[in-house]
Write a structure and sequence with these properties.
With 162 residues, the protein is an alpha/beta fold. It contains seven helices and five strands; from the N terminus they run H-E-H-E-H-E-H-E-H-H-E-H.
Amino acid sequence: MIFRPDYIEAIKPFINQPLVKILAGIRRCGKSTIFEMLKEELLSRNVPESCIIMKRYTEMDIPENITAKQMYDELIAEIAGKEKCYILLDEIQEIKGWEKAVNSLLEGTNADVYVTGSNSKLMSSEISTYLTGRYVLIPVYIIFSGVFRFQSEQYIVQTRAT
């Protein structure tokens, strides 16, 4: 796991705030890894592990055609009888109508809600309808493992040859 402290620092001011924290970025840019780091941050704050609920909506054990209502009901059942819970929903855009369910969690429970998803699918959804003024968007960018250098002479030779 590549530790990305800047993202945890960006999230920290919003922990326990009545906002949905949305981490959006392209596929494979590290959103799920940041969720793992967020879980570690919550544990370091003495949040009981039983109060951290993580769901990945790309895993095989989640029904392919799960509805937003089913997702909501499952989460309500998981947080029942617990103190404040932290709900981390990874790749939420896979659930049609997720915005309404997340809004209901935000308004009707003592839960701190975090979601991840792809830029295009999240931004084309009903966020503006159901979550207006109740979310913060944290863009996640890919890490490049190498440094790219261009040498002007090589570039000129290549462009002349083509």
